[in-house]
Amino acid sequence: MASTYVETGTRIRVYDSSVKTHASLPLGTYRVHFDGKEGFSLLRVENLTAGGERVYGQREQKVEKIFRSYERTDRSLGVLLSGDKGQGKSLFLRMVGQEAIARGIPVVLVTQDADGIADFLDSLEECLIIFDEFEKIFPNGRQLHHGEVNRQHQFLSLFDGMSQVKRIYCVTVNDVHDVSQYIVNRPGRFHYHMRFDYPGPDEVRQYLTDQAPEAPASEVQSAALFSRRVRLNYDHLRAIAFELNNPTAQFSEIVHDLNIKAIEPSHYRVEAKFADGSCLAGETALNLFERVHDTRTLELRNKQRSLYISFLPRDLVFEEDGSIQLPLHKTDILDEYDETPDDLPVSVSLTLVGHNTYAFDAF
Asked: Which CATH number is correct for 22-195, 1.20.1540.10, 3.30.1070.10, 3.30.110.40, 3.40.50.300?
């Protein structure tokens, strides 16, 4: 068997005839590998594909936008994708990777950290470089213990896009608060920051109609209305669609049984409105849907008024506009002297805010 002699610097390595040399990085998908003895290399893996899964939320248009902008620019292009788990970031990455291969651009996946990785990536030719769950692989200062180094800063020069080689950098994160301040809100490094939010009622309705075509329209509508007051991600919707494909399934029963219960408090805006048009408002963190028979107490205060409002979660009324009403005839309202105030509010409501929410028993 013939041998191939590869010379690097002053060292010559001997390989068998299976060794091939290329003038440029062959089209394909690779994962960065690091070995303590041999250093960095690229391992060929299967190409990313979106499969036959239908995509919601104008994702195809965003993929097209990325590559259209990349063609127009004369420098590297950074794309930051953020959002809670289950929002479709991984599917979007597969779509971007699939489109890159279709356009003749190799794809490189970064799944481990090692000293010198930024320099290695900068040695590559034109390609799409993907960092999935960037903040987990490369922790920043907020996550580090004493004496540890911020691992995200090693990429700042690379992400500046001033390299002689033009590339696309695509990074996903679950929580932007775990990303360096020199990356977020820096369009010079990441031109795009695409936020993956929870699907709204129209998307929920379309998804369930597509994925559970035999489900009664009334049950699909119940799920769509439910999404106005809780955050349902695509993992939740996939499980709900599976259950709704049972012709006897009812959404109210599905929510009771599925593993999508709230495990952390959610954030709500509380508003007490008075007959004179004034409003006493504030925000609070509550888990309303565990221990629904236990009393909750809210405090609202300004310079003129101070109220303590007590209620039972089981008495809440869920409106179609997404608000949650506290029935006044079942709600205790006291002032700072533990007395019933002279000017009782005409309504007290809660409105869901923030991302820390999951499905709960509301039917």
From this structure: 3.40.50.300
